[in-house]
Amino acid sequence: MNESTKSVNESVDKETGAITTPIYQTVAFEFPEGEKYRYSREANPTICELSRKIAQLENAEMGVSFSSGMGAISTTLFHYVSPGKVVVIHKDMFGRSFRFFNDFLRGWGVKIEVSPVGSSSLIELIESLKRVDVVFLESITNPLLRVLDVEEISKVAKEKGGSIIVDNTFATPINMKPIDLNADVVVESASKFIAGHNDVIVGLAAGPKEVMTKVDLIRRTMGTSLDPHTAYLTIRGMKTLKIRMDVINRNAMTIAEFLEDHPRVSKVYYPGLKSHQDFNIASRILKGFGGVVSFDVKGTADDAIKVMKSLNVIVAAQTLGGVNSVISHPPSMSHRTLSPEERKAVGISESLLRLSVGIEDANDLIEDLDKALKGLS
Prior knowledge:
The protein is built from 14 helices and 12 strands. The chain is an alpha/beta fold and 377 residues long. Helix 7 links the parallel strand 5 (163-167) and strand 6. The protein is globular. Its cofactor is pyridoxal 5'-phosphate. This is Aminotransferase class I/II-fold pyridoxal phosphate-dependent enzyme.
């Protein structure tokens, strides 16, 4: 079954024959004969269908749904870590994820090892350690779009006894399946490309049944549970994931090429460009290069913000992955929790903009960007 079919495929309700998953908007269920459904925080049929679908899309044995992407990350990590465990991460990642590892888990007694940007640096760090318990990485990093060699990193980490958890939000299961590359668990902020309409907050994780059963028990205890109506909207959005990503991949490539030649842009970060330092890795492990294009405006932070605010078709907002194109200024938005020194160490300039490309006509997006950039002249 290919991705288009998996995205659309949905279980038919056995009792009613409904071809769309019903919204079981209920707190509890009449005491059942079995153990499956009792209380919606623990298990709900609508949410279970979403969990089944992400497992199917990611070629995993079992999926679990959460109230947010950070809920998926934190709850999954609580299965793997405890004081004294060694976790390896990389600097170039979503700011809130970095804070969770570097502040919360470190303060809890977990040993956090932070790698510089890039696959080779991450591999070198893993090889230098006597023991590794967990390696957490983003398949395509946020916001500089480095492509990490999941297959090679997994091989090296497992030689050290480590488990591999991959945040696949930017790539999506359409462009990469980390479990096929020997990762253990994949997590997604499904609020982004998977749901695709900027109208839900939801996180997903998938992996081996033995592991995900334990993660699900932690979810029930932690309370990072998803609402059934949100699960329904995510299932609905997921049905068009493949066709949306086909358009988004194509649009993003066109816009990256346009920006690379623009006189008011100093650098473009997009793994589909031959100028990108991970182009060879991306070409090998990605089926598509994704829908996010980051670029440095020639000038200051104020110049970048002026460009962002001058756009008409593209919306300025702190999100990504929807059908409509959205742009943000990471230093003051998604990565504002990092200090200027931390951002500099990652390579995030003050004039960086992160563009999430939607399904609009590419020429309309290019015209909008061109006008805004020329407004700096």
